[in-house]
Write a structure and sequence with these properties.
Rossmann fold, 6-stranded mixed sheet, 434 Repressor (Amino-terminal Domain), about 350 residues, elongated, 3 domains, 6-stranded parallel sheet, alpha/beta, about 15% strand
């Protein structure tokens, strides 16, 4: 810091205030001069020592369920860009949708004295399991899911409405025998998508044939297994709706292995629009979640919590997903091929 002070003629106290992003630390010209000198000199502040003085580490934790999933990659990108531009560092951890591991990772981050934590809940059924985390008075924001009873901010999408709209679209094409590959029952987002699908089917047909609903686990293997089971039925569905991107991939594999053609033999619609869906043959109809925007919104919310002394009431912020229609869905054909045995 001495070198920066000597080069700029600015006091070390002011330089410290600029580095720590204290409001009104100096004029715009002085801030720019100091930042330029820091860059030219290659000066990197000792954040550990600084945190001891200011009782904050300027770090934010992010616990995700599955960082291998491209959907979460976009979400992480949105979080990271907001966090970095706001002067904070990000610590990322992966829970593998394991409740116990998620809890341990959150407690580890708290032991490192992060200023806040963003959590993609693995599927706790109640808020009790989060009590040890919330009792620390550290700011917490749930991302991509929420937990009933927890008085914290949550950023989600309109899973029920988006799922119902997708099913209504398949119905509008003339499909009646529509299958649904659901996610784990213990996640609110998964439960809402299932309810949206069931609601659309019951609204149109009065009831849903139980054999048309298969429970997966948000993995490629789970999607393949569920689709293979559906194709073993005496009368196969004319359309299938897979409730996340990885299960959509698995379902595609099972349909291909059965020797069926999309959409002439069976239509398929997925939840989560991936970058390659538009170039797949055929291109895939999908519900597009604004993953990047979810990440940005959650990060902005937590930064607001860190900066504002007056705290607004926690909110459930619901963003809108949209249906993107492509070539993998079409009206049911009267003469379809049967799966090969």
């Amino acid at each position: 810091m001495n070198d920066v002070a000597e080069k700029t003629g600015v006091s070390k106290t002011t330089i410290s205030r600029i580095i720590n992003q204290i409001p009104n630390a100096a004029s715009k010209e002085t801030v720019e001069r100091v930042l330029k000198a820091i860059d030219e000199l290659g000066y990197y502040p000792n954040q550990v020592a600084a945190s001891l003085k200011r009782t904050t580490t300027r770090t934010i934790g992010l616990v995700m369920g599955d960082i291998e999933n491209p959907f979460f990659g976009l979400m992480i990108k949105g979080v990271e860009e907001v966090v970095r531009s706001s002067g904070y560092s990000l610590i990322l951890a992966n829970s593998n949708y394991d409740d116990a591991l998620e809890h341990d990772l959150c407690m580890l981050m708290l032991s490192k004295q992060v200023d806040a934590i963003l959590i993609a809940p693995s599927g706790f059924s109640s808020c009790k399991q989060y009590a040890p985390i919330l009792d620390r008075q550290t700011h917490v924001v749930f991302i991509d899911n929420y937990v009933p009873g927890c008085n914290v901010d949550s950023v989600i999408v309109n899973n029920y409405e988006a799922s119902k709209e997708a099913c209504d679209y398949l119905i509008s094409l003339g499909h009646k025998k529509i299958a649904f590959i659901a996610g784990p029952a213990n996640r609110i987002s998964s439960d809402q998508r299932t309810k949206g699908f069931v609601g659309a089917m019951e609204e149109e047909f009065g009831s849903l044939e139980p054999s048309l609903l298969k429970r997966g686990d948000h993995t490629i293997a789970g999607g393949y297994r569920c689709m293979a089971e559906l194709l073993q039925q005496p009368e196969i569905p004319t359309a299938v709706f897979a409730s996340n991107n990885l299960m959509t991939v698995g379902a595609l594999g099972a349909i291909k292995d059965a020797g069926l053609s999309i959409p002439s033999d069976i239509s398929i619609l997925g939840f989560d629009d991936m970058y390659w869906y538009s170039i797949n043959q055929p291109s895939l109809t999908a519900v597009d979640q604004p993953a990047y925007e979810i990440g940005q919104t959650a990060a902005k919310r937590v930064v607001m919590r860190l900066r504002n002394k007056k705290q607004p009431s926690p909110e459930v912020i619901e963003l809108k997903a949209k249906l993107i229609v492509r070539d993998s869905t079409a009206p049911p054909q009267p003469h379809r091929n049967a799966p090969k045995t």
